[in-house]
Input
Amino acid sequence: MRTANNIKILVACEESQTVCKAFRDRGFDAWSCDLQSSSNDNQDLHRYHIKGDALTVRMLRNWDCVIAFPPCTYLSNAGARYLYKGSKDIPGNKLITLASGKKVITERYNKGLQGKEFFLALLNCGARYVAIENPRPDHAYELPIPSQIICPSQYGHAYTKTTWIWLKGLPCLVDTKPQNKDGLPSYTDLKRSPKSRSKFHSGFAHAMACQWGDHMLKTINDDQIHLLFDGEFKTTLQDLIIANNEDDDVTSISDIDLDRIRSISIGDTVTIEHINLTRI
Output
């Protein structure tokens, strides 16, 4: 039976470690990664931060869950004034015409396409549970329809900021401390530096850790699949974990390729390629 401490969560593109900490506080094996070093005031958390490219870090371990905050500089609708001809014309800018007929600045548009490629690579990273957060993207990049659109004021914060979330294997978040948005300032209008404005909201992080954490704990052990090894040993995944943990040379069957195993019928032979044995 897998518990929180052996459910591996990667929080990508997060140097603040706000979400990482929320999950670690609930006992999950959560790590953050970013191209920058951690900026969290808690030095003890820094040991759970990997400085590096998110897609490279994704391949280092078989993460159960990937939660990502990819850069939105070129994708966000807020940057449209720098993308379209006429909104911020600069002499010498090269233009291309989109299928919609709108003219965009080539260099800016191409950087947005690179951002879209990174976004989609994270969304389709193959983890069982995936969540991607970004502001509203510009329609020029044709990102997928989001699973949910939420606002910090739904989670106890006294400001507004439209936040889009794309989900795989996770439920939409439920409001925890909804407030009347009338009269609340926009988060982007608050006098903060661009870096501080990009920090994630603690109320969101707490809701993620509680609601998505509970969902993972309830569903990750749903697949008690009957396996047949070498044509004679029939058992369940849970039995295999217990049996192996009794050995002196401890091996935990902690990770299983469920997409491959779901296609196997009970009684079929399962080869070592279907299971990742992790020495602990």
